[in-house]
Design goal:
It is found in: Endoplasmic reticulum membrane. One of its GO terms (cellular component) is endoplasmic reticulum membrane. The protein is α/β, with parallel strands linked by helices. It is built from 19 helices and 24 strands. It has a five-stranded parallel β-sheet, covered by helices on one side. The radius of gyration is 31 Å and the shape is globular.
Amino acid sequence: MARRVAVIGAGSSGLTCIKCCLEEGLEPVCFESSDDIGGLWRFKEIPEPERSSTYRSLVTNTSKEMMCFSDLPMPAHFPNFMHNSQLLQYLQLYAAHFNLLQHIHFQTTVLSVKQSPDFACSGQWEVLTEDRDGLKKIHIFDAVLVCTGHYTKPVMPLKDFPGFETFKGEYCHSSEYKDPEPYKGKKVVVVGIGNSGADIAVELSRVAKKTFVSTRQGAWVIRRTSHKGCPFDITAFTRLLDLQGLLLPRRLINWVSERELNQKYDHRLYGLMPKHRLFDQIPVINDDLPACILLGVVVMKPHIQEFQGSTVAFVNGTKEEQIDAVVFCTGYNCSFPFLTASVFTGPGHNLNLYKHIFPPSLEHPTLAIIGLIEPWGPIMPMAEMQARWATQVITGNFSFSFLAYLSMLPSFCPSFPSPKHGNLLVEYIPYMDELANELGVRPNILRLLLTDPRLGFWVLFGPFTPCQYRLRGPGKWAGARNAILTVWDRVSQPMMTRVVPEPRPSRLPKLLVLSILLVAAIYAEKRHSKLLESPMAALNNWRMYVPAAVLRVLKT
């Protein structure tokens, strides 16, 4: 009989968990509290409590080739950076392609997840759910995969701003923001400069009377385009560059990369310069913020010192009067209200996760938290790799001693304080390779270079696409090779909507070469004629370059 696995959440992480369970012969049962799949990427006018929410204009920060699942590239006609509705469409295609919807129970909320009485022997869990009709039911599962993400509990640090109670204008968290229309003609302060803060500030600047961005630390800002207008992550994430990152000092890499960014727009001049180095935190991905600062429609400000009614005072002594609204882009807290205290360890209920997946306090590795990371790269393929590895552990396919690894904690286990964020930052390629190596799906580049040089070249020098992990091992996909070799076709197709004829090759280089050859020929002919008329005169000109022995021979 197949082992039953509860999957909590039907967002991008939940969907790939269902598929991975099916691949390993497990029986997944997914519980989704809303009425559809998509999670964060399903836009709703009215935010739902304890659920992630997004704004109408949200566009992805990673390109389609880098963020797709490893065995289903996104449609070639999709733009490289997609609107949230298009990414939702891809998730729907993914669910339909692998027949995942039949395993999902919609409008069913998980109230609690706790160990069964015989957990020490069975490793099973009791999951209490409530359906749309209010009917509660207890289920027994052999394992649980938590896929609720960490954008569920908005942070509103109102107490950190003295005098805020005197502010009579409008205020909200970015999770409640949907579009800029309510702020038309108003003076707005955006608190925070993460990706959401930058997007919202840029959008507000188009309709607001004035937009101010208050930031405590600043941020490095990167555009979505790089060399020749290609998606930045297509060129930034390659195995060759990752190898350079391992060999070169981190300070040198930071210095070179920061210098390159400042060549485009000086972060200090624009008021963006952060206190941290570039690769110490995830940068802001935004194409328009520097231009808005240049145009004066967005004004950068330091941290807020206090509110004085409708006046906002900043720590540098400046004040802005008649502020109408404040949008707090101050992030989220992690929240797992359905988990029991038994999975939390350490002071302050710290949740230590082995490889960012398994709570090590459990006797059996039958509960995994998927997608609880902040990666330097796309999160969807990383969540997929986590799901592939977790399902292999649950099925017992790994022979290593899980408890032996756990005995090495905390040195091998990153942690974060729950519910507050800690260090969830994960290096994209090293983390993927680490899990892939244990799964046996990491590509053998040397072997590829010897047996399939073209493919090996692309894997080493080309974009680091998730399809690389479907070339071998469990879950091998026959279409992986072609998907890797045709990346640039799918990148270029949505942009090639106007056929531009190739420019006719210029004749200037050919004419220049012919001219040089003609001049050389005329010069050579003149020299040759002088040599024939007076050989000894020509010889005298070259006397200093010819050995004396040769001259004696020529004179005789």
